[in-house]
Design goal:
This protein has three helices and seven strands; from the N terminus they run E-H-H-E-E-E-E-E-E-H. With 144 residues, it is α+β, with helices and mostly antiparallel strands. The N and C termini lie far apart (57 Å).
Length: 144
């Protein structure tokens, strides 16, 4: 009897020293990852902006599909169609909200996925690191 690995999840949120609208202006476009995420060197949109083909700093290719987009709610969700990651059934959401403080925003990056060939802990650590490093880079873009 084979067992299917359970879906795993992780989420990271970080306060950014800029208004939610300013943060969304930078990260809200589905093709905008190279503008704030140093690990992504290019993003090419196709299928009317619903598919992005990303090039990474390690010369890997990642293809992601826009699943949901809410400009007013400052959020979008996407799935992975092709990537060198040891997961399947990946679905991620990026959301920008107003923070309690004046002129600040909270960005949450979360994902669910099924580990493939690695433990749940390893898969969670991989994406927790991606989200943490990505949000730290985003915060740097607004510091100073």
């Amino acid at each position: 009897m084979t067992t299917t690995p359970a879906s795993a999840a992780t989420s990271v949120s970080l306060e950014i020293p800029a208004t939610a609208d300013k943060v969304w202006q930078l990260i809200g476009g589905f093709g905008a990852l190279p503008d704030w995420l140093p690990f992504i060197t290019s993003s090419v949109l196709s299928e009317g902006g619903r598919l992005r083909t990303l090039a990474t700093a390690d010369d890997e290719v990642v293809v992601e599909r826009l699943e949901a987009f809410d400009n007013a709610g400052r959020t979008y969700s996407y799935s992975i169609e092709q990537a060198p990651f040891p997961v399947t059934a990946y679905l991620s959401t990026i959301k920008v909200s107003d923070a309690a403080g004046e002129g600040a925003a909270v960005v949450e990056w979360s994902g669910t996925f099924t580990p493939a060939g690695v433990s749940e802990d390893e898969a969670i650590a991989l994406f927790h690191g991606v989200y943490s490093d990505g949000l730290a880079a985003l915060k740097e873009a607004f510091d100073g």
